[in-house]
Fold:
Amino acid sequence: MQENSKAEAKSKKEKPAAVKRPKEKTPATTSKSSKKTVKRKKKTKKKKSFGAVFSVILLLLIIGAGAVLYFDLFGSKAILSDLLELEKPTQAELDELDAKKVEMAGIEEELNAKIFENNKFSEELENKENDLNTKQAQMEKKEQELDDLQAKIDEQTHDLNETVDMFELMDPETAAGAIDKMEDVDSRIKLLIAMDSEKAAEILNHMDTGVTAEALDIILKEEESEDTAQ
Structure:
């Protein structure tokens, strides 16, 4: 009994599963799909027919235009020729254009000449300005040298005046001895000329005869030159 029950259980386990069958289409579903297919075919036919009609119309237009030109209907050739001639300039217009080009070239050449002349003038002006600056610098240098010389003369004059004041206060004989010892003749003459004439005469009386004669000779010559200049 146990063996039979086990065999039955085993047979139950090995029994294959039931295969699911596809659902059969109903008549309603089949009619719907056939309607969609018919609509798609109609749309395709419409597109093809429209393209064919458009191609035929375009071809007819091309043939018609060719026929119009070929048989010169409505003066089409003259009209087309006129249209083409409108785009092409006449010889007079070409000549005028060439004349304008020549005129423009002349104006450009004249302008370039003006620019060159202006640049040359600017260069000359710059050179003159540099020359003026150089001369101005030289003049300023000369003025500085004159100022320095004038300052030196003023200083020497100041020193001479102080020396003259000192000799005029001295005894004439002592002053004469001091002047005789001076080695520079010009310094002696300048000192005597700058003194009061009476004081200078007193000092000359006590000076060495040779020195006195030389000094008087120089003094007389300077006085004569001053009188001539006046």
